[in-house]
Amino acid sequence: MPYAELHAKSNFSFLEGASHPAELVERAAELQYAALAVTDRNSLAGVVRAHGAAKDRGLKLIIGAEIAPVDALPVVLWPTDRAAYGRLARLITCGRRRAEKGECHLTLEDIAAHAEGSIAGVVGGGMKEEGRRMKDEVPGTEHSVASNAARSRLHAYRDIFPGRCYLLAELHHRGDDRRRLDQLASFADEAKVPLLAAGDVHFHVPGRQPLSDVLTAVRHGCTVATAGERLFPNAQRYLRSPGEMTALFARYPAALERTLEIAQRVTFSLDELRYEYPEELAPLGLTPVEYLIQTTWDGAKMRYPAGVPEKVRRLIEHELQLIEELHYEAYFLTVWDLVVFARRRGILCQGRGSAANSAVCFCLGVTSVDPERMDLLFERFMSRERNEAPDIDIDFEHERREEVLQYLYQKYGRERAGMTAVVVTYRPRSAVRDVGRALGIPADQIERLAKRIEHFRTEPDLPLRCREAGIDCKSTAVRQLVDLVGQLLGFPRHLSQHTGGMVMTRGPLCELVPIENAAMPDRTVIQWNKDDLDELGILKVDCLALGMLTAIRKCFDLVKKHSGSGSDLTLANIPEGDEGVYEMIRQADTMGVFQIESRAQMSMLPRLKPKCFYDLVIEVAIVRPGPIQGNMVHPYLRRRNGEEAVEYPNEAIRGVLEKTLGVPLFQEQAMRLAVEAAGFTPGEADQLRRAMGAWRRPGVIDQFHRKLIEGMLARGFTQEWAEAVFHQIRGFGEYGFPESHAASFALLVYVSCWLKHHHMAAFTAALLNSQPLGFYAPAQLVRNAREHGVEVLPVDVNSSDWDCTLEGGRRKGEGGDMEDASDRNSCPLPPSIPLHLSLRLGFRMLLGLPHAHAEQIVRSRGDKPFRSIDDLARRTGLRRAAIMRLAKAGIFGSLETNRRQSLWDALGQGQKAMPLLDTAALLDTDNSPTTNHFLPATTPAQEVLADYRTMGLSLLAHPLQFLRSELEKKKAVLASQLKTWPNGKWVRVAGLVLVRQRPATAKGITFVTLEDESGTANLIIRPEVWKQYRTAALGAAILIAAGPLQRQAENIHVLVAKLEDFSTHLDGMQSQSGTCQ
Amino acid sequence: MIVSNLDGQYRRIESLREQIATWEGGGLPRADVGGSPSWRKVSALSTGCPALDRVLPENGFRRGTLIEWIGRGEGDGATTLAFRAAAGGAAAGGARDGGAVVVLDRSGEFYPPAAIRLGIEPARLVVVHPANKPDYGWALDQALRCPAVAAVIAWPDSPENRPGKKSLGWLDSHTFRRLQLAVERGGGVGMLIRPYAVRSEPSWADVRLLVEPLPSVGPYGRSRRMCVVVLRCRGGRGEQTVEVEIDDETPALPVG
Amino acid sequence: MKRLLCLWVNNLPENSIDALKAIAAWCKHFSPLVGIDPALFPQSVLLDITNVVHLFGSEERLLEKVADELRIQGWQLRLAAASTPGAAWALAKHGVKEVVRGRWPVGSTQYPVTSNKTSPLSPSPLSSLPITALRLPEPIVVLLHSLGVGRIDQLEALPRRELTSRFGPELLDCLDRVTGKLPEPLPAWNPPPRFQARWSAEFPTTRRETIEAALEYLVRRLAAMLTQADRGAMRLECLLTCLEGEPLQVVVGLFRPTAWANHLVQLLQVRFESLQLPAPVESICLEAVATVPLELRQRELFGEEQPRGEVHHLPGLIDRLSTRLGHTSVMRVRLIPDAQPELACHYVPLVERGMRPVIKLASKSPLGAHLPHIPRPLRLLHQPVRLPNGIEGSFSYAGQQHRVARHWGPERIETGWWRGRTVARDYYRIETTAGRRYWVFRRLPTGPCFLHGMFD
């Protein structure tokens, strides 16, 4: 007899279901089920994945959810149509919004209010722990034979769902199945509710029982061995064959037949969800399309005051036509509305993505990349053939993005706006921790192992890690650990919020998808992630936070303030094509700028030698997993340097790859290659890209792989080339970096470089005021500024603000203007010539100083500098502890007192009764004691260390200076000497560890940057060396590295063979005066 | 044995008293020793089977007595009935508070979850594993004698006395009588589960029952049926037979 | 002038107050006044040696002797003597560079000893010690370090009258305690009392009456001591020294602490009845090795509400049974919520072997907890018996043929994978035509059948 399973949980019932939705679907299809319902507990988070898989397999999927109200039996709801689906989503939203993150609080009354159109299956028994609290009320459990309460609950459901209510009979070989079934039947009979067979499925095959047990243990925070009856006593909760179900329900065949009946009654499919954009964006009397057209042309006039160029005019017309045809006008208006809001608030923002780089978006002010001056191909911008959603991400200043989000919530209401979810999944480390704990493996062993695993992206080779961690991998528990961790990887763990994807709808969003609370207050998240939205064709706007935008805006402000000119710098009016800027870039003098400041990027710059804006686009995109995994970087560089001929297999390919010299570097190119070279349809190409991502659809990747390779071979490409393209597509799948994003980023690269080149002091101040940001710590940024001739002044109680500021130079109103400055600077200056403005470090540089204290100081200071610590204490009213913190930070330089002395003075504060009559103030005397000689004097080394402790940098000296004599004994050379060191010769160098980086693409190689008093040294540490010196490599503040020097173009690094932790010598410096002086 | 003089005297008086009591046909109230034993004031112990209660003179087992359950061997249900009765005694009986249920298990095959399912509270259950026959007798005597024990369940015949074997290790008459005196002193109920072969042996028990299993009836046969023959009952009418039926799929409801 | 000796123990097991106590108890050989206080003097034992130095000739000799003997016991020490406990500790902890290991050279004078003639401070070994030697609160130490003050002499250079306002009164107090300006007493410590009684035979004997009389005598003395200390015995150890062979040891654990002589006598008698004496007994030593204060009477066996008169019999019964049958033969039952039937129940001895008294027979767990939801047999075989012919229609067991009349089930148990022994069984309850009920299972997927229990 055919069968439809109507009660199955996937692993989106977190820590309950033990199979992926797709696995359930696959198995149900194999068993030739008539239909499968995925019914997660209080959730619809997994249904889209099931939907996609079911479409692939041609299985009828029923959408549903198990609702567990607090005051009644759990019930499974299957909405029969779109409206009922909306009510179910609303019901879940209602319960989720009311409760803590991850919880759901619903009552029978709530269910009744959203019951229309749904069929209900009351869960009759077999509920484990959750049902326990009302065990006596669950009909069918032994204790409840006479429970009237349970009957009345069943009756309540019957009345809520007249003619649509069923009692679920779920048998799991518990020993008394026959009796239970009879009991349930008599209950059903009495309540006039039909009996319905179901499986309460938790996993697709019995082999998942161990994993299910582990999840149960994790959920309860115990071990599997102590979980006891919280575990299922057998593996029956899998998808059983229709034959088995028939045998189980032999005496009640009608209960089985009803599953088919329900499967027929439920016609709703997720395909019916028609997504509708908000429409209130157009003013009264105008349709959205009319309004968009009007706004676009208005914008075009602003962008091109001298008249819109013909090329751009054609582009705009073409794009507007397309937008109208595909009904995306509301989407563009939504984005435009956001940008207008940000501009009004003075928040710097920029769009990126295929649609963002359209001429329309340029006119709307979404992007500043001028379509006229940049010859970009906008292939990915919406095509008729592919019904692909336009893609616009907007970056906002990271400190102010929240304002934008709150604006959206305010404008559309919580009902209509929500944040996209991110499904946080098990990674090797978290899986090892949870499984290990559940198996009762000793905590120290788990930790050792977890630490070993670091963050492996792929399979972590657990047996090997176990051996490394000294764990017996032959023991039963560890073998099970390895096996179960493998199964658990990729399981969803909980929903988190996407970094910025917002979905807005015309109707209530919560009738499209349930909304729940995020961990952050005032945030709500929908239950679907971006892949889910893609699958259903739902549009979202990504509002992302970008630190560099904050820094750029702050730099614009500083420049404006100190240049005295009234004109604002904007992203769009930075002079283009500044040769000085490109020269700086080619020299890799890019510390602090956007994107191209990482070591990998810096080492690429001298090789790529960017000359124009498009070179920056390539630079941004090339140091990415896609091109690197596809081995595209070196061919491109060779062709660019003319070392290799540029060839195209055919004209079609030339069309795709001409801009990048025949080497695919962008995601768009890879996708188009699949079309042009392997004969994919555009839709297939896009599916391929997504299949490469984090989706777990077993077999899909292999399928595509075969198809791609075969297609390319058939078209005469070599196997090698085909494999390379495949690898690249795979890389793009996970770290997609399209040209359209690169172009927007490149603009920020250029702008930040321009600012660095022309306004070093302001740029550095802005970076420091936007921390944390970028790759480098304040110490390096300050050092870099000083190397460029900027005078950097210490934090001082009488001069500093909270932010870093600029001093000297011309102040506002003193005349002079921007043009002057930029004219002078546009011809490259040797970096040694000091600029006008000095950089004064702000109080924010001090670690742990509360903002309020700094405000207090600045406010009390006014125009009258503090004359002593007593004076400061009196005027600011700061507590002793706060003043001590200031003293330790050594910011009383202008009072001519040192750290120890000021600390001693600070200690004396607040102990004297604060006089009613402040005599000191009256007499205006300074009662600070004369210099005390009883405190031991500090050494310069101690001063420097104290600076590092309180600020992470020192303007006095570099700590390594004080170790130099010892380092010389160890034959360590200065970093600056490396420039002249012969290639391949063994060298020893020491320094503070600035950066440890292990790019995913570098095959386990770690890049470390050391800094000494003369400069920085780059280290390359191979995995085996890393392993050997792991403790030092990971933990040391100061390292001595030894190995042969390697020189490649302008790049110099030490290929490390030996490492030594030199950090302990810091302590020596520290205590020099302590006991020995 | 080191016993003080006083103890020795006391002991002698006690044993004399016991002998007299025995001659008089068992169990005269001994209100003179340490006040009236509280168990005397309480009504008889229900067997847990109304049908069986009805044929017993006090509608149940008298406290301070031994009950013999003679079964047909494995799977017969005699022990089940004994535990059901003991559960009632421990939970609601005796000295208002209930008391311990001591199980003297020599084979080690006693499976407590089953007894607990029959209503014995785990907190009141004490399981004793005497290693040999003398220890078994001694422990049984000690347990019966203890006023804090509501019921003792024991298999006093050596395991080698299972059907078909020689009657070597049976409970001998002398020991039997001593046990009877002990239980009278303690005030609980001693459930002695005994093989079929001893049914014609003399008995010091208050009640001797023979349990015969019966096939279950009904469509699914959930109820378990047994035929219980009251072979001997002090103060009762002669041999009587009742049929009892228990629903063993429903665990005993928690009592108190 | 007072003289104090401090032993700083380098290899003290972590958190081991017991080890310190042991050392302190041993140090009683040297001085009647011994002190430990892990809070005030971490890792250390202090001795007041003011009046005992002359017994050893000199302070150095005394220190050497202490160091030597403790070293043999495996302790690594630093020792110092001074006129205040604080100074002695400071010197022991910080004044010696090397931990004393190996054999100390006889006659060595490397122990730092402050002169007892001059003032305890400057010029003294103390002034060059780090300020941590003053046992200052951690925040003050940190603060002083940030002022560059690391040594005691640097601290002393600070203006004394400004210290209290800046660091609070503790700083000067700590300093003054070490120098002796403020008194600091030796934290007194005395070993806990032992409950022990001994008896020696005039003529070694095997006569039971004599031995039993002796035992009773010992018990009564012990009981008197316990009563006086208001403590109850949890465990008795009785050591019989015989003319030949190893001494015999008899250990009695109790279910409930008691100081009641009659009960203790009874329990010992039960054990002595079966005791074989290999040779005449010379002496007997009886000790209550584990005791608890009697005012901390644990809860009654079955909850508080029961009348005590009836219930106090049960502990007695349990003690008697445990003593004669062995404590692993008298047990309570703990149900384990494990699906595998033979693992669903644990026995726990009512009288524990260890020191801890069993507070409760069992918490009053609700009857429903972990209760099997369908019947279980009263008899469960240790080893399931294989039924060679299966259970279709009939089965044979112990030479008898049983015809299956009905069966109920299956109850499927698939569990235990984490133990490395996965069980997969389908259990059936079987009724034979004779009305007998058996519990059998089939090993899955289609394995042999086993008889596992009887519904007796």
How would you characterize this protein structure?
The complex is a heterotrimer of chains A (1077), B (256) and C (456). Chain A is 45% helix and 13% strand. Chain A is built from 46 helices and 23 strands. In chain A, the strands form four sheets. Chain A has a seven-stranded mixed beta sheet with strand order 1-2-3-4-5-6-7. Chain A has a seven-stranded mixed beta sheet with strand order 8-9-14-11-10-13-12, with helices on both faces. In chain A, helix 28 runs antiparallel to helix 29. Chain A is globular and about 95 Å long. The N and C termini of chain A lie far apart (94 Å). The C terminus of chain A is likely disordered. The longest helix of chain B has 19 residues. The relative contact order of chain C is 0.07. In chain C, the strands form four sheets. A six-stranded antiparallel beta sheet of chain C has the order 11-16-15-14-13-12, with no helix packed on it. Chain C has a four-stranded antiparallel beta sheet with strand order 2-3-1-4, sandwiched between helices. Chain C is 27% helix and 28% strand. In chain C, a hairpin with a 2-residue loop joins strand 12 and strand 13. Chain C starts with a strand and ends with a strand. At the B-C interface, helix 3, helix 4, strand 3, helix 5 and strand 6 of B face helix 9, helix 12, strand 9, strand 11 and strand 13 of C.
Find the CATH superfamily of the largest domain in chain A: Metal-dependent hydrolases
What does the largest sheet of chain B look like? Answer: 8 strands, mixed
Tell me the strand order in the biggest sheet of chain A.
Answer: 1-2-3-4-5-6-7
What CATH calls the topology of chain B is Rossmann fold
Any key phrases for this structure?
heterotrimer; A: 1077 residues; alpha/beta; TIM Barrel; 6 domains; seven-stranded mixed sheet; 46 helices; disordered C terminus; C: 456 residues; alpha+beta; Alpha-Beta Plaits; Dna Ligase, domain 1; four-stranded antiparallel sheet; 12 helices; 16 strands; 27% helix; elongated
